[in-house]
């Protein structure tokens, strides 16, 4: 695995987020359109129920548009070398990768694997590579960022959260382990 493989995983994750964002926004627009187009769309629903439907419709629209915008912004940052990975490689004194772990969400039918990558500025990048690419990506990140921590533990999480609080209070200028 190399930098292009890592950036390819980021782009693939962004594509997925754009597709999901389009469907979420479309659902919101559909709900709004349904309510506007028909006189009896809400049947016997009281005013509180109608307001709730409108709130959820708008929430879907905003969430979908936000997912699309952030994914497009991430892809654009790759093209302009402003993406956190590229910045960390170009100028490690500015920003660096400090913690990486595989995040697994299990359901009754499947398990979703992703990498959570934290930077010295407190930001996190979630990357959803193909399952077979997770270990090669971890190896690549270990070689590229040898001072980063790899793996998850409650102790690391607590230490990161404490450092992040200090960073937000401007007590420190970057998060370090």
What does this entry look like structurally?
By secondary structure, this protein is an alpha+beta fold. It folds into two domains: 3-80; 85-168, no CATH class. Helices cover 57% and strands 14% of the residues. It has helices at residues 3-37, 47-79, 84-90, 134-144, 154-168; strands spanning 97-106, 111-119, 124-127, 149-150. It has a four-stranded mixed beta sheet. Helix 1 (3-37) packs antiparallel against helix 2. It starts with a helix and ends in a 9-residue tail after the last helix.
Summarize the main sheet. Answer: 4 strands, mixed
Q: What string, H for helix and E for strand, traces the elements in order?
A: HHHEEEHEH
* Euclidean distance between termini CA atoms: 26 Å
Categorize the overall geometry. elongated
**What's the tally of helices?**
5
Question: Which features characterize this protein?
Answer:
4 strands; 5 helices; 177 residues; four-stranded mixed sheet; alpha+beta
Topology:
Blueprint: H1 3-37, H2 47-79, H3 84-90, E1 97-106, E2 111-119, E3 124-127, H4 134-144, E4 149-150, H5 154-168
Parallel strand pairs: 1-4
Antiparallel strand pairs: 1-2, 2-3
Helix pairs in contact: 1-2
In short:
This protein is α+β, with helices and mostly antiparallel strands and 177 residues long. Helix content is 57%, strand content 14%.
């Amino acid at each position: 695995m190399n930098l292009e493989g890592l950036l390819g995983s980021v782009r693939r994750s962004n594509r997925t987020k754009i597709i999901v964002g389009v469907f979420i926004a479309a659902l919101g627009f559909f709900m709004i359109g349904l309510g506007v187009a028909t006189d009896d769309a809400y049947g016997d629903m009281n005013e509180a129920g109608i307001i709730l439907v409108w709130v959820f419709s708008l929430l879907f629209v905003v969430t979908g548009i936000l997912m699309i915008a952030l994914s497009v912004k991430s892809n654009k940052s790759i093209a302009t070398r402003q993406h956190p990975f590229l910045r960390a490689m170009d100028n490690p004194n500015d920003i660096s990768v400090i913690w990486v772990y595989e995040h697994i969400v299990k359901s009754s039918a499947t398990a979703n694997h992703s990498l959570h990558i934290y930077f010295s500025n407190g930001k996190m990048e979630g990357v959803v590579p193909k399952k077979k690419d997770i270990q090669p990506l971890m190896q690549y990140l270990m070689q590229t960022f040898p001072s980063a921590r790899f793996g998850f533990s409650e102790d690391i999480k607590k230490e990161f959260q404490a450092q992040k609080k200090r960073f937000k209070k401007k007590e420190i200028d970057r998060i370090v382990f």
